Amino acid sequence: MIDKDGKYLKNRKIIFVVCGCLFVLAVLVISVFAAVELPKSGTLELGVAPQDATITIGNGTYKNGTHKMIPGTYSISLKRDGFKDVTGTIIIEDGKVTTLKYCMATKEGNEDYRMTKDDQDLCFAASEYEESMARKEEQADEIYQYLPYRSYKDGYSISAEKADGENIIVVTITTMSCREVRNKQLQQDALEYLKSKNLNLDKYFITYKSSCDGSE
Question: Where are the domains of the chain?
């Protein structure tokens, strides 16, 4: 029979052994995770019109939107009945965003295809993105991060350009309505859009037009 002191010492030894084993195990687990390199990733933003086009990247099929991808060079193809096929490559870089905005061209005989408003917006976005990238180096003002902007859903477009021979940026808001009351509301909506980007509108010269009068 073991006395109380003997039981106490024996229990302490067991506790020390268990704690020691757990400590060694924890060190091994941490070492393994430290040695394993976590997979890197980049971001791909897709905006292709028509929206129901088949977008194939590498061995996968994608839809418009934002996707996390392993960095590397991928083959890409865009296909849709009645439209010209598009093929090429894209490069995804670790920690960076790659943007692909593209408006597919119709095949001969399909010129009368009527795009949805969403597809029209995607085509405008693709065109404006291309223009904005081309002049990005020349125009450093923060407003060019958000303009040009155009949306049939919102009912207005906004563009910006430097006045000839002057260091002034002219912002043009064009509304897509023939009704005066509606135009005023759309103009206010466009101003709210600009304000939501935390832009100081006082430093720009803002003008207003209407597509109804053929000024756009």
Answer: 1-36, 38-107, 135-216
